[in-house]
Every structure is written in structure tokens, then in C-alpha cells.
Amino acid sequence: MSAIDGVIHRALIKKKKRQKALELASKPSLEESLRARFVILETMTKPGRGTVVYKLADKDDPNQVLCCKSILERGNEAAENALLSEATKLEVCQHPNVVKFIKVGHEFTTPYFFMEWVSGENLAQKVNRHSNGGFRADHIAWLIYQLAGALDYAHTQGVCHLDIKPSNVLIGADDAVRMVDFGAAQYVGESNEYVEASLSYASPDYIRTGIGQPEDDVYSLAVMTYCLFLGVAASADIGMVIQGQKRPVVIPPHAWKAIKAVITKPRYHGYSPIQFAQVLGQIDTDTPLSNAPIFNNMRNADLVLSKKKADVFSAIDGWKSLEITLIGATLVLVAFLVIRNVFSFAFELNSSAPVKPASFTYDGQVFQPDDTSWFTYQFLNEFTSETPELSKTAISVVEAYDRKKSEREKQLYQQLNPVFEDERQADMTRREELNAVKNELITIRRLMQGGQAGDSVHIEKQLSSAQARVNALLQNESLYSENAVTPEEALNLLEVGDVVFARKAFESAWQKATAHAYYYAHEVRYQTVVKVLARVASLMDETKFKDASSLIENAQEVFPESEEIRQMGALLYARRGEYILQQSLHSDLVVDKSIIQQAYQDVKTFAPERLEQVKAQLKEEIAQGSESRFKAGALSINAKNVTSIVLPDWEWEA
């Protein structure tokens, strides 16, 4: 572009800006629109962010006070985008301890959003009032626990707040805690050239990279916790101060350990917000509670805070390093010897008496489903039919080998089952989230096709929500297996001589695959059989014998080797036979004689021990009803058929 072209281009841009400014000037301002419906009680500006906040009272209901946030200068696209981004993140992160979002909109091209107004004061104001001392440990723990719940929820939505500080924490007149100001919030892993943060509370890793991570919010939470214990405001070098400082007397040892761990390793401390809060929640009964309170009422705090005496580590806080090291080494050695002996005893006990699967009891019978793999039966049947000369000893060896192999696989499965349960739950959550993302994308497409005024706000909201879900999915640790190893990676490990890690990687991958195989070959079968037994029992109790028979027949086809299903089938056919014989004496319709014959045969075949009892019950019922019920019609025919089949030697007068 030549110099003349550049001058013309800048002139055109200035002209467009003047035209836009004139166009905006001709329209009413947002403040004028607000005055038509509300009384503006207070106006607070943030020039650094280009925003303005109005405290409003509804003219029709003065007791209803709201908060409206908008931009200072109309036509400022950067400020508009930032405001809409803040509104969408606030809406996505709605939680009982986050300020309540009401709505977002445009008024004469000016974006805004409404939220609740919290009557009370922010935490910074409380710190200023108590600058001569800190706050009570139990009040700090209760405050941090509520904030941690809000942050944990935001992180599940893929959002990092990134501006946790006392002035952004409101304590309502009713002691309700509200986290506010999502102006600096980012999606997890999102990169911004311009980092907006309070340097005194922000994680140094966030300031350095401009990329927000959940650990950064925990860092800010830890800094704020430290300041609340001492009753001071944070400084820019607070991290270095804490790292080089000995534990202040007012901070309990367990809290100091957690604070220092987070500050020392801003991104690698291993705490989630709620885990950090749970550490603080262990209130030391020896900690003085004479400092200033944060709340007037601590209702429900006892549900999450626990009191405990100072532990051994607190007692030795002032001991010399050498003394602690010697005592610690002795304790470790003793513990190792004890654990080794206990582990050896438990392993021997477990090897000699393997745990049997749980049983299922119904109608006085105990069903003990085994957990042998279904393909073992199938393999043995095929193998012995193909090799009839194979001795029974050889077959028993194969069966014994499979049992031993299954025991080993079962041990691995039991060790890793909690991990698998988490993975299965994570898979379900991912499917639900992906469906939600799909629906949001469909909504975005419809909005884009519609082209209506104001749709840009809804599109921004849907895109932000979809991005939050995708970020949350990408955070899921189960997507990144630490144990997986590819042939290329294994080759590289062997070439560089990292034999230990390569062996561990292969062993871990094998254990996981073996445990997975055991689950599908054994555990799924066992759990399915138990569910079939329970369902059949339930159907029998509801006298739905047709459905129960269909289910048991299908199950016998899938699990022909299952003795428990055969036992339940026998019980079902016997119970069904008794039911048909009993109901025949009460039916107004003629029951086919072959059905009565089959019912009697089922009782005789599958429950011979009950046959005489069934006959006695039928004889008694027919005898009692012969004078009134069995004189004529279907009842008489059914009674005669039952008598002729079940009681051929007994005569009665119809």
C-alpha cells in the first residue's frame, strides 16, 4: 500500500467512526432507558475495563433492588465483547455462592446484563475494619469452603475465575457468600494476549503465560486465606514472602502446610478448590478463636467443619530437624516391618480362601452364581467333543488352570475396579455432554439462518456454553492415560535406557487390559445372572408368569451352563403350575384340560416335594366350595378336570 493509499484508508476509517458516533448520539442512552423504569441509586464506573455498574430500584416495587452492568462508551467493540463474554461465563457458572445472573440484552445498540444486588459488604471492607488482627479460623474455613464449591462448579463448566480477591467476595446481610466479577474469567486453556488480573492475588504462572488453569484459582484462594488469618491485604511479592516465612502463630499447622504447598508450586500443588477447603475445615481445638468474626451466624457450618486435637506434627513443630529425622526414620522402619508382616499374612489368607461371589436368596432357596467365564464352558465343550480321547484328568487340568488364571485376573480386577467405575461414569458424562454440545450447535445454526436482530447475543451465549462443555470434556483425566505406551514410545525408552519406566508401562498396560478382560468375561456375566434372577423373582411375585418364563428361557439360551438359572427356572415352572391349578378353580372361563395337565406335570417334575401339599390344598378348596360354587358352568368343568388329573382317586359330587 502506498503512502497516499494509507492516508485515504485512515481517512475512510475516521469518517466511518464519525458516522457511527453521530448515529449513536441520535439514539437514547441506556441510562435514559433505565430511568424510565428504575430509580438509579448509585453509579460505579471502572474506567480500566470500560464498564459501568448501576444500582437500581424498581419504581413499581422500590424494595426490589437490582444491579445492571454495561459499557461506558457506546461503540467500543472491545468493551462490548468483553461484557458479553463476562455475562455468558457468569450465566454458565450459576451456583448458590455466585451472584445471581438475571438476563442479558441490548438497548439501542448498548449491551448490558442484570444481576442481583447483594446487600452487605465485601471482604476487603471487613479486612480494612479489622486491620489490627486476623479473623477466626472456623469462620475463614467456612468462607473458603463456600467459595471452593462455587469455583469447583465453575471448573466443571470449563471456566476459571482468575480474579479471586477480597473485593470480589460479598458477604450479605444474611451472611450469604457471593462470588462476583467474572470480567477476567477465561475458559480453561484459553490464551489472551492481555492478562487482566490483580497482581497481588494472581498466580505467577497465569501472569507469565496468559493461559488460565483451575490451579490458578486455588493459588488466589490460598493467598486470600493467608491474608484473612493475618488481617492484611496482599502485596505484589506475597508469594515470595510466604515461601520464606516461618508459620505465623495465628495460622494452624495443617492450614499453613496447605497454604505453603500451593504458594510454592502454583500449578503443581495437587489441590482442587474443595480439597484445599477440606484441609482448612479440620479445625484445631487448640487454635484460639478470639480473633474477629466474619459471619454473624455460622448455620450449616458444622456440616462441613470438623474439630480435632492438635496432631503429633503440630506438637513437634518446634523440634530440631535432626531429632525429627531420627524419630521419623525409626517410625518408618517399624511401620515397614509391621505392614510387611500384615500384608504377608493377608496375602496367604486370601490365597488359601478366595472370596466367593455374593449369593441371591429367594423363596427360601440360596442361589450362588459362579463367576467362571462363559467362554470357558463353550471352549471345553468344543474341545472335548473334538478330542473324545482326551482323559478326564486332562480336562480337570484345563479347568484347574482356568480357575487359577481367573483368580489372578480377579485380583487385578478388584484392585482396578474403582478406577473402572470412575471411567464408566466419565464415559456416561461425556456422552451426555456431547449430546448437549450437539443440541447447542443445532440451536446456533437455526439462529444464524434466522438472521433476526439481537440473535448475536444468543449465538454468543450458545457458543460460550458449547465451548465450556468442550473444555470440561478435554479436562477429563481419563482421556489421557499415563499407562498407555505405543511401540514407538517403548522403543525410544529402551534406546535411552529407561528400562524401569518401560517395564512399568508395559506391566501397567497389561494389568489394565487383563482387568478389563476379566470384567467382560466374568463380572458382566455374574452381574447379569444376578439381575436375571432378581427380575424373574420380581415377576413371579407379581404373578407375571408369562413374562418370567420368556425371560428365563432367553437367559437359558445365553447362559446354558448356569446352574442357578436352571434352578430358578425349575422354581418358576413349579410356582406357575401351582398358580394355574389354583386359578382354574376360580376362573369363569373353561381352562383347557391340556393346560391343567401341563401345570400338574410341572409341579410333579420340578417340585415333587410339594406335590402332596398342593393336592391337599386343592382337595380342601374343592370340598369347601362344592355346595355353592361348583354346581354348574365353567367352575364345575374346571373342578372336574382338576380332580380327574390331580386327584383321580377322590370323588366329589358336582
Automatic annotation (TrEMBL):
GO terms for molecular function: ATP binding; protein kinase activity. Gene3D superfamilies: Transferase(Phosphotransferase) domain 1. InterPro entries: CDPK_Ser/Thr_kinases (IPR050205), Kinase-like_dom_sf (IPR011009), Prot_kinase_dom (IPR000719), Ser/Thr_kinase_AS (IPR008271). SUPFAM superfamilies: Protein kinase-like (PK-like). The keyword Metal-binding does not apply. Coiled coil: none annotated. It comes from the Bacteria. The keyword tRNA processing does not apply. Keywords: ATP-binding, Kinase, Nucleotide-binding, Transferase. SMART domains: S_TKc (SM00220). Residues 38-305 form the Protein kinase domain. PANTHER family: SERINE/THREONINE-PROTEIN KINASE (PTHR24349). This is Protein kinase domain-containing protein. It comes from Photobacterium galatheae.
